[in-house]
Amino acid sequence: MNYDLRTLSDRAELNDLLLHLGRALDEHRFNDLKDVLTEDATGVTRNGTGSGRDVLIAQIEAGNKDYARLLHRFSSVLIEIDGDTATIRAYITALSGHAETFVPTHRGYGLLRAKAARTPAGWRITTLNVKPVFVVEQ
What we know:
Elements: H1 5-26, E1 37-45, E2 48-51, H2 53-64, E3 69-82, E4 85-97, E5 106-119, E6 122-137
Parallel strand pairs: 1-6
Antiparallel strand pairs: 1-2, 3-4, 4-5, 5-6
């Protein structure tokens, strides 16, 4: 593992990229995902497979927009950098619920695997795959 200053800076930026992803989801700011994903991003979420940033964002929004309360948490984040590309592996906990209750109606636990690339605007996710491991419905 390389811990030089550039690598540490890249890892911090990539970790922040995950936090921006979670915040965009939790706050229903799906348009903010344009600052997280590359234009040609692809991915697999609980709503299927998407190719192209706009398609992937629409897919992500469709799976989350009907819930007033969203909470996404990433843990055990592992970031591996190889030049101008990186891989990210993290556990994701996703809670979804309605405004009238603090009890989530959906709890999902999964494994996030992503690829990222350094762009002129900073690091962006090129591939976003979320594989459910456990799902609990109320």
